Amino acid sequence: xxxxxxxxxxxxxxxxxxxxxxxxxxxxxxxxxxxxxxxxxxxxxxxxxxxxxxxxxxxxxxxxxxxxxxxxxxxxxxxxxxxxxxxxxxxxxxxxxxxxxxxxxxxxxxxxxxxxxxxxxxxxxxxxxxxxxxxxxxxxxxxxxxxxxxxxxxxxxxxxxxxxxxxxxxxxxxxxxxxxxxxxxxxxxxxxxxxxxxxxxxxxxxxxxxxxxxxxxxxxxxxxxxxxxxxxxxxxxxxxxxxxxxxxxxxxxxxxxxxxxxxxxxxxxxxxxxxxxxxxxxxxxxxxxxxxxxxxxxxxxxxxxxxxxxxxxxxxxxxxxxxxxxxxxxxxxxxxxxxxxxxxxxxxxxxxxxxxxxxxxxxxxxxxxxxxxxxxxxxxxxxxxxxxxxxxxxxxxxxxxxxxxxxxxxxxxxxxxxxxxxxxxxxxxxxxxxxxxxxxxxxxxxxxxxxxxxxxxxxxxxxxxxxxxxxxxxxxxxxxxxxxxxxxxxxxxxxxxxxxxxxxxxxxxxxxxxxxxxxxxxxxxxxxxxxxxxxxxxxxxxxxxxxxxxxxxxxxxxx
Length: 559
What we know:
Layout: H1 7-17, E1 22-29, E2 32-37, H2 38-54, E3 62-66, H3 71-82, E4 86-90, H4 96-106, E5 110-113, H5 119-122, E6 132-134, E7 144-145, H6 146-152, E8 167-172, E9 182-186, H7 187-205, E10 211-215, H8 222-235, E11 238-242, H9 249-256, E12 260-263, H10 265-278, H11 281-288, H12 291-305, E13 312-315, H13 322-330, E14 335-339, E15 349-350, E16 363-364, E17 369-372, E18 377-381, E19 388-389, H14 393-399, E20 406-414, E21 420-425, E22 430-431, E23 437-438, H15 440-448, E24 453-459, E25 466-472, H16 483-502, E26 510-515, H17 535-551, E27 556-558
Parallel strand pairs: 1-11, 3-4, 3-5, 4-8, 5-6, 6-7, 10-11, 12-13, 13-14, 25-26, 26-27
Antiparallel strand pairs: 1-2, 8-9, 9-19, 14-15, 15-16, 17-18, 18-20, 20-21, 22-23, 24-25
């Protein structure tokens, strides 16, 4: 029986069959970029693998990467694997305490330091005696450099192999509910997932053609790791572009002109709000309704976003408002939604050409088994299922049913054709004083569809009713000092409250909409690195105000 191919086998094939094909394009400041062919990519990885192997760490030793997305993240991961070790990626926005926790919990032996904005603060979380290697785009340090090591080190020879049961990576969750957990993923499982993703991608993108993708969502997160990095390792014909900074993102996107583009709901919403700031929604809707103009206008909008060449657009990490999907599809962007998590290596559900009902997250990928428990919980068996939580057998016991299904913690329902709908999260349910449980996520999804809102949180534990705390859209926030704009916002939020409540059960209805004083961000700890809200953090921040809100009679308040 033939042995299954691992990701490294695909990389060796690309190195041999398409050595001069450009694989990675890295901005280097200003207008400069550096292209890396498959041969150059593997050559650098091989040289670093020789160096790492020479350090004499035990087989399977954990090697950490703290970096924004860049070409050398890909190279470093391949080098770590070739050398016989396991990758631990840390979100580049984490503070020193989380950096320290992940390095110590994983038992990391070495740290690669790459593109970072706050290394001067993060360095305090790195043990003083830990060896460090600086990527070419790292902040100025005294560490050994990637280029210096590669210049003096010969490439590792042959085709170093890893057993399917070897751990390829530990993926630490972004910590939206406490301390991050390290999900262990083996080579066998991530290789099968990457093949499954590639097969599904080829159904839309075609097989053998050149594809372009922008890598900008954190590579420490499973979504980007599976759908960009590991997909490109298997596909071989995908050209990966990187973004330089947030300020140059549109320019970088226009350079890439991706055929495949994945994002998260918060960014899809920001793109829409950016369009609305330039062209009022009413005017855009009118022009899209005119047959002779609709295609011209839609093309102009997508070109402005850098998305006019996209054949497949995907969203994950959190629910998309159905109206937002409709908006993009009306522009001709084939936006689909999926559902997965760190624990199944992003391999669970996705819309397809024939199964793409708005409000659902599609059907299972090949090999995925799904069921809904008596309590309404979605439970899944996936080819990408984690081996377990690192050093946490207690969590393993909690996470799996007796017959091996993973307890997702999400509530859902399925249609007869297999399409899945997420209806809430068990752990996010809260009970008001009326004694009924409220699921906040579906309500937040409705609120987030409003053009004035960037993000929202519905809460109300123990109160007479629930309430909504909302962050206004970025372009609107600087204008609320103007009395007329403030009045317009209050009127719109009051109307939204009435409209949203009309579709809710009595016990779910909100008493008020409260406008947050400050936006939620990764930096202030209110968002995870993948831009999910941290409920406990936000609730704690406003805890001293909630009783006062409920004592008043206002329907729209300013915090």
